[in-house]
Amino acid sequence: MTRSFFLAAGLAALVVSASAEANAPSNRVVAANRAALREPSGSGFVQAVQIYPYSDGALYRLFAAPERITDITLQAGEAITSVAAGDTARWTVGDTTSGSGADKRVHILVKPYAAGLSTNLVIATDRRVYRLQLESTPRAAMAALSWTYPQDELLAIRRQREAAEAAAPVAGGLAVDRLNFNYRLSGDKPTWRPVRVFDDGRQTFIEFPHGVAVGEAPPLFVLGEKGEATLINYRMSGRYYVADRLFGAAELRLGEKRQSVVRISARRARRGEMER
Predict the structure, then answer these.
(1) Cα 175 from Cα 182, distance rounded (Å)
(2) Rounded Cα–Cα distance for residues 227 and 28 (Å)
(3) Sheet strand arrangement including 183-187
(4) Four-residue CA torsion sign, 245, 251, 254, 257
(5) Is the pLDDT of residue 170 over 70?
(6) Range from 8-22, 87-101, 152-166 carrying the lowest mean pLDDT
(7) What CA–CA distance (Å, rounded) separates 172 from 168?
(8) What is the pTM of this model?
(9) Can you tell me the distance from the alpha carbon of 259 to that of 248, in angstroms, rounded to the nearest whole number?
(10) Cα→Cα distances 60→120, 142, 174, 217, Å
C-alpha cells in the first residue's frame, strides 16, 4: 500500500463522517428552526412595537433585558388557553388585559432575571399558537411586539366580496312584470340543487343556494327535441347562472360514477323557447 492510498482513504472517511454528521437528525432540527425563525426588522417597527406577520409554524425572536418588561400583545378578542416557558426559574412570565368587549386584548409580559439567557415561550389561544424564541441582552429590550394576520385579512376581503356579489343585481334593466317563473325542477337533490329558475323573455336565470362552492357548480346542458344534450354557454353572476337564451328543457349534471342530475323543465312553452 502506498502512502497516497492511505491519505485518500483517510480523506474519504472524513468526508463520509462529515456528511453523516450534517445529516444527523439533530442538525436537521437546528436547520429547520433556523429557517423558521423571524427576526426583528427595521421596517417592522411602528414606534417601539415590532409587528410580525403571523404565519403558522414560524418562530418569533424576542429580545429582552433585566429590569425591563416586554409586552406581547395578542389579537383583539383572542383568549388564552395556556402559556408555557422553557425556563420559568430565570424568566418571569405574566399576563394582563386591556380594553373591553370586542376590543379586549391579552398582553403577555416577560422579563429575564439576567443577561445572556435563552429560552422559548409557547402561547396557545382559542385561535392559534404563538411560538417565540426569547433572548436576554444587557440593555437592548423590545418594548412590545404584536402581529398582523394576513390570512384573516384575506378571509375578510373574500367575505366582503361574496356579500357584495350576493347583494348585486343579477342583471340590469329587468322588467319584473315580464319575468317568467314557470319552470319545474326534478331529479336528484344534491346540495347545489337550484332554488329557482326564471327568464325575462330573452335570458334564463338559474339561482343556486347560498354557500355553494365554485367546485360544486355543475355544467348546464340543453335538451333537444329528441333528448340529445348540448352543453351551452352561460356565465356566473354571484350565485346565478345566466344563459343568453331560452330553452324548454335542460339538465345540470355533476359527477362521474355517481352522477347527480337535476332537470329543468319549462311548464308553459312560449314562442322562441324551444330550440330547433
Answers:
(1) 16
(2) 63
(3) 183-187, 260-266, 249-254, 220-223, 229-231
(4) negative
(5) no
(6) 8-22
(7) 10
(8) 0.54
(9) 22
(10) 10, 12, 56, 42
